[in-house]
Amino acid sequence: MSESIIKVSGLGKKYIISHEASGKYTTLRDAIGRNIKSWIGSSQRNVSREEFWALRDIYFSINRGDAVGIVGRNGAGKSTLLKVLSRITEPSHGKVEINGRIASLLEVGTGFHQELTGRENIFLNGAILGMSRAEVRAKFDEIVDFSGVETFLDTPVKRYSSGMYVRLAFAVAAHLEPEILVVDEVLAVGDAEFQKKCLGKMDDVSRNQGRTVLFVSHNISAIQQLCNKGIYLERGKLVMQGGIDEVVDRYVSEGTNNTFTKEPKGDISVTHAEIDKRVNGDLMTVTLYIRSNIQSSMPVSIDFRFYTLTQVPVGFASIGTFDYEKQVNLVHGDNKIIATVDVNTFAIGNYLLNIDVTRPNVEYYDRIEDHLSFEIVKETEENRSLQQSWNYGSVQLNATIKQVN
Amino acid sequence: MSFRIVIEPGKTRKNYWKDIWRYRELFYILSWRDIKVRYKQTTLGVLWAVLRPLLTMIVFTFVFGKVARLETTSVVPYPIIVFAGMLPWLFFANSLSEASNSLVGNERLITKVYFPRMIIPASSVITSFIDFLISFCILIVLFFFYGYAPPARICLMPLFWILAFLASFGPGLYLTALNVKYRDFRYIIPFMVQFGIFISPVGITSEQALKVIPSHLQWVYYLNPMAGVIDAFRWSIVTDAPNPFLNFPFYISMAMILLLLVLAIFQFRKMERHFADLI
């Protein structure tokens, strides 16, 4: 089982960003124009070119039968890595060795054609994903069954509802049988019920059929549920590879922490912030050290913006923005402020906290963004509480009834 | 290990042609998709394939035969002579425009799935070939209309189909690759096609054209690969057309077909690695 099926060494992918061109492609007119300019001698090019390393110095290897979750924030290079592994784009450096048939699912329904019927699209999409016609034919009934659209098989997919479309598309993909399956954030589509079905199918693929799966998702709980190994990328670099739980722990806590310190800059700046690492129940405490270089006392608002780790906004709390009477008066020099926020309605899970110090509707003095994180736990409660990982949102509302008989 | 891939920058893959063979099913199915969609989407699809060559032929016959009064010594009706040249030319023209837009039109496939990219322009040339076959039926109708019996060498025609296919695929592939990088090529292609119809022996035969070209420059006329293809076509249909195989410049055309094909494949393979980033 410890045989390596994918070996990546020194992998790098560089993009050249040209700040002159508006689009990614050039026109012949531009190219000729540039050449003529350089012939004439006015070699002054106002093109600023910038190298951008989407991936750099990546080394890892994956064993046969592993289910590997790739985590990282937006722009960390996850999708680029998958594209290189699935041979869609060429690396600029390094080497990848793959010992097996690889199929990639970077999008659900790639190549589906609106004018063609469901049946025709199954064959088309199957071929695009690398299945032979015989293979598709053999699994046709299973695919149709999984998708649950058998009554519309001979209807052009342009008449499908978006749900049906996604179900059919995933059904085809789910019946791929490569040795290595590469999956990008495709579970973000479809309803909760279907997502569960898809996760189950993927679990079956990796656990019971012993295939190797590479899985990118922002849904940390799905990754934890599905994968046994993890890879953590940050800004194109490999931060760590290991067991999924360690990797997720590191990912969730890294970059963000429950404290943050920075150098003062500008008139008013936050020099240090500290929040509870784990909030059990209702109240979380935020301690802020704010330096003011303004001689007189200065009223400011402090806003707390809450997000999930995947940057979905969850809630907002403020001291002073809604009610100017409650603004904080900062004195010259260092101020220490302790705020309390009621997070009782938050679901169990991890959150980011961004803090703004502002004069409402006038200016931002300082903000702390993507640095602070905390976890909501509800250990004392006997009742079950909402968990973020259920995908029902991050706020648990209170509901009461009055039974009328 | 049955299956092994090594990905390295700048390396042309050793199993490139093997890969194309392995993806042949995708090639069939993409061609089938293009054909199906083409004739499904436009109810006029088939009619269009009939009308376009027919109307062009009528105009050309009128302009060259009646207005310009280009006399032929041929006993074959002029419309048939024109049509025999029109068929391969329209195939060529369609292939160029279809192929050059094919990659850009399949952007989602290119950025989301790996397969040898050459499949896409190739399958679009196949679609044009179906149009070509439909137009071919008109030729047969013309035979009956004029009560004309083609020579027995019309049986060689499928050979010239392959020739026309190769002649179209080369430039088509080249333009496809360029069109991904330089998007304004799509404005150049219709112009090339329009221009080309007049420097190719479409409305007139190549003997008529060569009459006005000094003999030491006649080889230039045959740098156009379609000149040779059209000559061959016409020879297989028109009883008293000269045999192109006895005409030395014809081989220049053949050499050009081969040269363009090789160049195009080379260029395409060079650029194909960056398609996903460029498109």
TrEMBL record, chain A:
Domain ABC transporter: 40-260
InterPro entries: AAA+_ATPase, ABC_transporter-like_ATP-bd, ABC_transpr_TagH-like, Bact_Polysacc_Export_ATP-bd, P-loop_NTPase
Gene3D superfamilies: P-loop containing nucleotide triphosphate hydrolases
Pfam assignment, any one: ABC_tran
MF annotations from Gene Ontology: ATP binding
Keyword Chaperone belongs to the record: no
Protein keywords: ATP-binding, Nucleotide-binding, Transport
Family from the record: Belongs to the ABC transporter superfamily.
UniProt name for this protein: Polysaccharide ABC transporter ATP-binding protein
Automatic annotation (TrEMBL), chain B:
Domain ABC transmembrane type-2, residue spans: 44-271
Main location: membrane
Entry keyword annotation includes Ribonucleoprotein: no
Organism: Terrimonas ginsenosidimutans
Keywords: Cell inner membrane, Cell membrane, Membrane, Transmembrane, Transmembrane helix, Transport
Domain of life: Bacteria
Keyword Zinc appears in the UniProt entry: no
Membrane topology according to the record: Multi-pass membrane protein
Protein's name in the database: Transport permease protein
